[in-house]
Amino acid sequence: MTQLKRSEFQAKIQEGQFGSESQVYLFFGERFLCKEAADSLQDTLLRQQPGAVHTIDGDREDPGQTLARLMSFSLLPGRQIYRIADSRIFHSKTVVAEIWTKAVQAFQAGRPGPASRHLQAMIQAADLKIDGPSPLSEIPPQEWKKVFAFDKPADSLTWADNLLGELPEIPAGNTANLADRYIEAFDKGLPGGNILVLTAETVDKRQRLFTHIKKKGTIIDCSVASGASAAAQNEQKAVLQEMMDKTLAQFGRRIDPPAADLFLERVGFHPVAVVTEIEKMAHFVGDRPVITRNDVELMIARNREDALYELTDAFSKRQVARTLVILSRLLEQGFHSLAILATMRNFLKKQLIFRSLQLRPSPVWRRGMNAKEFQNRYLPDLKAQGEWSELLQGHPYALFMSFSKASDYSCSGLKRWMIMLLDAEFRLKGSPVPPHLVLEELFLAMLQGSPKFSR
């Protein structure tokens, strides 16, 4: 029937123009936005005709059983809405790499819950059977490429093994035959009053089931542009501003523009966090109608990227006390211990690459090089070699600072630190010692010796 942008769907809902046009609805894209839009549809449908909602968790769903229920006439009166959250029936090997990227990003941001959810989705999409304590680490690169349709990452996958090991048995994920069964059911027609509402973060738009729903049902696109381009940033900010304004209106509060800018900067693009943090701010100010910048500075912690940057900054400056204080704060805020290790590994890996580049005979790195010389001569010559292009992107001054920091290290020292990180991973995985003690011992041991000023 149709595919709508989320903004178009919202306008129709608000104008009362959206009714029971379809019996099948799919919301895909940003998870919280999908949930919010599906909530609006559910409320609208139940206002038009009362009934019951059957909520099903896509993480543990048996799609075949769901289809059987959907095709049966209910003994309950009124409209029957079958709502599948985080459906994975639209997954395929085509989107496995995208799901993996989301898992890595969530883990590195200190969000083990979403990371586990994405890993489980990846396993199901590839129809892989989990067997043993190290299901991903032990897959050979050639087999990995065959199973997941992208190259095996070079970094340690212990964090992924650990997260998968904490999950219950993962149900089978092969949906090839199920898609045909769903299409056949939709063509036949669902029993009157039965409505299927699906939400999914990631979909394969080329899948036959997706294109069939686009023709016979209604699809609402809740995705938001990603990346650092101006257009993507503006779209993300507009969504966050919408979430913030709507939540403030519910509490009868306002926020000063400078406070709003600081708030969005600290929370980052996490719509669900914007809502929860604004609710916290509204309760904090009490009877005051306006939230100020001082309120935000007091109540909203710096975003996770800033917090992790603080850790690597303190470490690089060899500030032992500050490093341990920041580490303690990160753990108190719920950062997973393996996410902290992943951040340090990425930091050290980048420093090792930059230091290796500096040791090349050409272009010549000179200690004491200023920012202008780096930007006008050294960086262009380095980029011309065509290697590590993804690491040489970004603002030239930020790169200059990273290269200057790398010049203080030796390759042997950086490699030694990487080995210490790996040892800490094994201890976190198999030792009964509390994670905070493992990490504190690691940072103290790393900062005791100096890898500076040697090859």
Descriptive account of the structure:
With 455 residues, the protein is an alpha/beta fold. It is built from 20 helices and 8 strands. It has a 6-stranded parallel beta sheet with strand order 1-6-2-5-4-3, with helices on both faces. Strands 7-8 form a two-stranded parallel sheet. Helix 4 packs antiparallel against helix 5, helix 10 (230-251) packs parallel to helix 12 (271-285) and helix 16 packs antiparallel against helix 19 (411-430). The model is unreliable at 450-455 (pLDDT under 50).
What's the SSE blueprint?
Elements: E1 2-5, H1 6-14, E2 24-29, H2 31-48, E3 51-57, H3 63-70, E4 79-85, H4 96-108, H5 112-125, H6 141-148, H7 158-165, H8 176-188, E5 194-200, H9 208-216, E6 218-222, H10 230-251, E7 254-255, H11 257-267, H12 271-285, E8 290-291, H13 293-299, H14 304-316, H15 320-332, H16 337-358, H17 371-384, H18 396-406, H19 411-430, H20 435-448
Parallel strand pairs: 1-6, 2-5, 2-6, 3-4, 4-5, 7-8
Overall structural class, as computed from helix and strand content, comes to: alpha/beta
Query: Considering DSSP H and I runs of 4 or more, what fraction of the residues is helical?
Result: 55-70%
- What series of H and E elements makes up the topology? EHEHEHEHHHHHEHEHEHHEHHHHHHHH
Return Rg in Å.
25 Å
Number of helices: 20
- Oligomer designation: single chain
Q: Ends: how far apart?
A: 65 Å
Summarize the main sheet. 6 strands, parallel
How is the largest sheet built, in terms of strand order?
1-6-2-5-4-3
Task: Give the number of DSSP strands.
Answer: 8
Q: Strand share of the residues? A: 5-15%
Q: Report the uncertain regions.
A: 450-455
Q: Given the C-alpha coordinates, what overall shape results?
A: globular
Mean pLDDT: 85
